[in-house]
Amino acid sequence: MPTQPHTLAEPRVSAALTRMFEAAARDDETAARLRGIQPHERGSLTAQELADAVREIYMPVSADGGKLLYNLIRATKPATVVEFGTSYGISTLHLAAAVRDNGGGQVITTEMSRTKAAAARETFAATGLDDVITVLEGDALQTLAALRQSVDFLFLDGWKDLCLPVLQLLEPHIAPGTLVVADDVDLPDLGPYLDHVRDIDNGYHSVTFPVEDGLEISCRL
Hints:
Blueprint: H1 11-24, H2 27-33, H3 47-53, H4 63-76, E1 80-84, H5 90-102, E2 106-111, H6 114-126, E3 133-137, H7 140-143, E4 151-156, H8 163-170, E5 174-183, H9 191-197, E6 204-209, E7 215-220
Parallel strand pairs: 1-2, 1-4, 2-3, 4-5
Antiparallel strand pairs: 5-7, 6-7
């Protein structure tokens, strides 16, 4: 039986993930250096001001969370994966690797920080996955508003208070049976989003997966 592709194990991809996870392990140290700004703190700053202020902080999905995303994409075989919040691209690489190993599809991801978007594009090119990834730079509520195709898998990992507005923006493009996944269920700002997807009257069946800060996996009914 021929060996099946596993892009996460490809040397360029695994090396990039190792490098970025090692850098992300210093996020708390970096946040302290940036005059106490916390990775998920909004305060009185606009989204753009905060994105610029924390441009050195990775804020990644966990390693196990990334593996779960890969498996979910492999199993559901979505044609179009949409991600809110690429940061430096750790989660995006997991999504794109699964799309590549499925034999087709695309990942559309968003990033407000110019610094992070540029670094992510360099990483995507260096790993050979840039052909399946489109980076929409700017405010996701604006860039995703132009989306016309169906959303076959949605991953939400940007500012937590914007996850619900992004979901509601994209809901007309989300068919029944589609998975919607949000990271960091332990963060208070995700509360309104969780209330929405955990209420079956809003058209979702939701379960919390206990990995790191928690992933909420919701199926559109």
